Amino acid sequence: MLLLLFVWVAASEGQCTFRNTAFKSGEYLSYNLYYNWKFVWVKAGTASMSTVESSYGGRRAWRASLTTRGSKRVDDMFVLRDTLLCYSSLDMAPLYYRKGAREGKRYYVDEVFYDYADGKTVCRQHRQKSDGSHTWLKKRYGDCVYDMLNMFIRARSFNPEGWKKGKVIDFPMVDGNSCDPARIVYRGKQVVKGDNGVKYRCLQLSYMEKDGDKWKKVVDFYVTDDDNHIPVRLDMFLRFGSAKAFVVGIKGNRNAIASVVK
Predict the structure, then answer these.
(1) What is the pLDDT of residues 168-180, one digit of tens each?
(2) CA-CA distances (angstroms) from residue 69 to 101, 150, 176?
């Protein structure tokens, strides 16, 4: 009976699976953060992202975390303390997402718990607000849905061969209390220099969210034009202004970094 239950769950979840070609357990990426303050770019903190093979609900899973830390010297401008965590199955179906964010005077926590049944995605969505109150939703979605971090690690395994500028990938994005349209737009290729002094040939991808009747750009990702698709630079368009992140260190990459420009 347990075996049949496992097969049933795996089959339901299979609609949202994907192959991972971009990372392996133990990958660790580090970044310098910069804020735009009165038209001047100021070094303002650090960020890091790690991916390991772990377990979730008694099964093997990928665990990815992204942490941003603004330095105390710029806290008077804007306080930024974000921690994002996600679990996905080894074949990339989302299982869990959490975001704890302190942005300015606002602090909140978002969580999404994923289940799969009868070809549907079932999400329990939780938000803890700044005042300490909690909201819970349970919704069934007719197709696959994704949170920001699960979609990011999934997108690293996209095959851009044959993509043309302007190609759009649409998907539904969930957080602690909603499900909204989102998209990734391919902008072409650029050479980008990291804070490690290395130049990389990169693909530029824009993550966009629907804002009323218009699309709003949230982040531009510059990822290596090789099988790793490692983020080298991120341009973030925030409520208080803008910020950038440049890669400092790359450890534990799965594939050779073939995008280095000599």
Answers:
(1) 999 999 999 999 9
(2) 11, 21, 22
Q: Which residues of 89-107 are buried (b: 16+ CB within 10 A; e: fewer)?
A: beebbbbbbbbbeebeeeb
Q: Which residue positions in the chain have pLDDT lower than 70? A: 1-14, 37-38, 72-80, 103-105, 239-240
Q: Can you give the chain as a three-state secondary structure string? A: CHHHHHHHHHHHHHHHCCCCCCCCCCEEEEEEEEEEECCEEEEEEEEEEEEEEEEECCEEEEEEEEEEEECHHHCCCCCEEEEEEEEEECCCCEEEEEEEEEECCEEEEEEEEEEEECCEEEEEEEEECCCCCEEEEEEEECCCCECHHHHHHHHCCCCCCCCCCCCEEEEEEECCCCEEEEEEEEEEEEEEECCCCCEEEEEEEEEEEEECCEEEEEEEEEEECCCCCCEEEEEEEECCEEEEEEEEEEECCCCCCCCEEC
Q: What pLDDT, on the 0 to 100 scale, is given for residue 8?
A: 37
pTM: 0.89
Tokens at residue 189, please? 């290729």
Largest CA distance in the chain: 63
Residue corresponding to tokens 């989102």: 182
Q: Please tell me the distance from the alpha carbon of residue 116 to that of residue 140, in angstroms, as a whole number.
A: 9
Predicted pLDDT at 5: 38
d(CA 199, CA 153): 23
Cα angle: 235, vertex 236, 239; to 5 degrees: 150
Q: Give the pLDDT confidence score for residue 247 in this predicted structure.
A: 98
